Predict the structure of Carnosine N-methyltransferase.
Amino acid sequence: MSVAAAAAAACALPRKESLPPPPPPPPVVRAMMRRRRPSEEERGGEEAGEGQRWDGDAPLGTERRPRDPRQPRLPPTDAKEGEEEERLERDHFRRIINAFRYYGINMHERVNRTERQFRSLPANQQKLLPQFLPHLDKIRKCIDHNQGILQSIVKDCTNMFENKEYGDDGNGKITPASTFDMDKLKSTLKQFVRDWSETGKPERDSCYQPIINEIVKNFPKDRWDLSKVNILVPGAGLGRLAWEIAMLGYTCQGNEWSLFMLFSSNFVLNRCCETNSYKLYPWIHQFSNNKKSADQIQPIYFPDVDPHSLPPGANFSMTAGDFQEIYSECNIWDCIATCFFIDTAHNVIDYIDTIWKILKPGGIWINLGPLLYHFENLANELSIELSYEDIKNVMLQYGFHIEVENESVLTTYTVNDLSMMKYYYECVMFVVRKPENSN
């Protein structure tokens, strides 16, 4: 049996875990919550090195609604196993909230260490840098400002999912967070630059716009009723790409599982309604490679657009949870758009398999991104690192037809334009189609 035939056979067998996407209420976002057991990385495993893209870097807006009866909470096969899963999920949820709250303490400790080291210098050397300590005081004020924003982001987030509640959030007690969690949180702050600030527009133009252009080319409004073109954006981050697609009139759903992203995108998509009404200092964590001291405290403003400005009747939604678990209904989507996503897989073939199943016959998959496999250096996590050549061969064996291929799309990821050190990705972009005659 061919790979495509095997995938088709799998589709023929309905799964109990199937969660078809419901028609969402415009213009803001609904959320379904299904999370897998937290991985070693989520629990605080190895730290990523300099320049690493976190799995959580990769938005979810939610509003409080009664649980949709069409999306029942799926009972576990074993009661004890289910209780353990629930406990781990609650613990993970509260741990991420705690990381948001611990940010200020963590950053003040970092600045205090810098001050102690400066004061250990000989007095004549300290006199050479009269602005050093005043600069640290400015950083402290920026830390306090960021902490205020982070407090707003996690306020009332225990009830943000329509079919999942977490009760209390730990009663406000703040405990030390792991270095791993703090690094992910600092990285999340840079996502606001990428997705929702004017500063991030060049980056969005280089990696989101090519995807949008392919969508418009394949589903032009003079030949399609755009509201009936269903587009899915897995690994949606803070939601800007999915939002931009919905702005054009397409029915678009984003999906994200990182709670760092989900909390933050919920804040932007559901609580922000004026342009540039909030300010963040995303670069204060960078003490190296600054040309000027002032560069470290340069603010960004967000959101650069009103997230509630979707056109009347816009069909935009977000789901929270594991891509492969939530999306199992066959032949649902006209287009799947992945940006900096496929390397978040433990096994990228599983992603290809899921995408093949859920795409409609004749549907297209648009991808742009690198292959920086997120689980590569985690000893206790499965990680299959395939070259693009291998991925291409697998797609062809499934039955995809390649329509567009560009192996050299230069872009960045949450880049600091002011920094003396920048990372560039030479990404692969492709558009592949599932044949019309596929079952």
Q: What stands out?
A: The radius of gyration is 22 Å. The CA atoms of residues 10 and 220 lie 32 Å apart. The first helix runs from residue 3 to 12.
